[in-house]
Design a protein that fits this description.
- The complex is a heterodimer.
- Chain A is an alpha/beta fold.
- Chain A has 7 helices and 4 strands.
- Chain A has one domain: Rossmann fold, CATH 3.40.50.1010.
- Chain A has a 4-stranded parallel sheet with strand order 3-2-1-4, with helices on both faces.
- In chain A, helix 1 packs across helix 2 and helix 3 runs antiparallel to helix 4.
- The longest helix of chain A is centred in the middle third of the chain and has 18 residues.
- Chain A is globular, with a radius of gyration of 15 Å.
- The two termini of chain A are 17 Å apart.
- By secondary structure, chain B is mainly alpha-helical.
- Chain B has a domain of 43 residues.
- In chain B, helix 1 packs across helix 2.
- Chain B starts with 8 loop residues before the first helix and ends with a helix.
- The chains are: A alpha/beta, B mainly alpha.
- Chains A and B meet through helix 1, helix 3 and helix 4 of A and helix 2, helix 3 and helix 4 of B.
- Chain A: InterPro entries: PIN-like_dom_sf, PIN_dom.
- Chain A: It comes from Candidatus Gottesmanbacteria bacterium RIFCSPHIGHO2_02_FULL_39_11.
- Chain A: This is PIN domain-containing protein.
Chain lengths: 150, 91
């Protein structure tokens, strides 16, 4: 079972733009994972939605008038993912553990709290982490969490 | 590995009966059942994955055609945490 990070979902919906080589490599791997083996969480969907609706237009200088098209595509993508993938969430235990991990890596290689939640959940449920974020995989390696290394 | 699973009393009895009949431990019976189910759903899942990928490809194509980025732009997702800083610039 693969715990899917935000950057993988972004690479999927933005696959028809010219993307970086690593994203293409990970997307190719992701496209072969069966739907029920893809684990997504509420917090990853939230981060994904914020990236596509707010960061993407601003970062890549998209016309402001295109907001509606982006929102519509987002709605279809989120709905498909929610109804076809396996959903999971951060429990109280996961969140407390994530807070400890956040503190642990603060002075080594700082990661965001979403990343801490992802690591905590992967560790708790023995999921294989699928992310192209090298900082996150470095932390996963340290915690002996299995991850995809392409 | 030990994991607790809650099952109905009659399901447990049926599992016990099958295990006794086959002279196998209950865990092995469960392993065999899961294996059989996995095989059964694999074909269906392959078809569903193909349909899903086609649907998302179509959606991604539509998005790229309607929402254009300046020519020559390459979407770089190697560090999206850095990209979130653009929200601060915006505000």
């Amino acid at each position: 079972m693969y715990l899917i990070d935000t950057n993988i979902l972004i690479a999927d919906i933005l696959s028809k733009y010219e993307t970086d080589k690593i994203s293409r490599k990970y997307r190719k791997f992701y496209s072969k994972i069966s739907l029920s083996e893809r684990i997504i969480t509420d917090f990853i969907l939230g981060e994904f939605e914020q990236f596509i609706s707010q960061v993407f237009p601003h970062r890549y200088k998209v016309s402001h008038e295109k907001g509606k098209e982006i929102d519509e595509a987002l709605h279809v993508f989120l709905s498909e993912a929610i109804h076809t993938f396996t959903l999971d969430y951060a429990s109280t235990f996961t969140t407390i553990k994530a807070s400890a991990l956040y503190g642990k890596f603060l002075n080594i290689h700082p990661i965001g709290f979403f990343d801490s939640l992802l690591l905590s959940l992967a560790q708790e449920k023995s999921y294989v982490l699928l992310t192209q974020d090298k900082r996150l995989t470095a932390c996963a390696q340290e915690l002996k969490i299995e991850f995809v290394n392409l | 590995m030990y994991k607790t699973v809650s099952i109905q009393q009659n399901t447990y009895q049926a599992l016990n009966r099958i295990a006794s009949r086959l002279d196998k431990p209950k865990a092995q019976v469960i392993d065999a059942l899961v294996k059989a189910y996995t095989k059964e759903i694999a074909k269906k899942e392959k078809k569903e994955l193909k349909e899903y990928n086609a649907k998302i490809n179509k959606l991604a194509k539509h998005l790229a055609q309607t929402v254009r980025v300046p020519k020559g732009t390459r979407i770089d997702l190697t560090d999206i945490d850095r990209d979130f800083a653009y929200l601060e610039e915006k505000s």
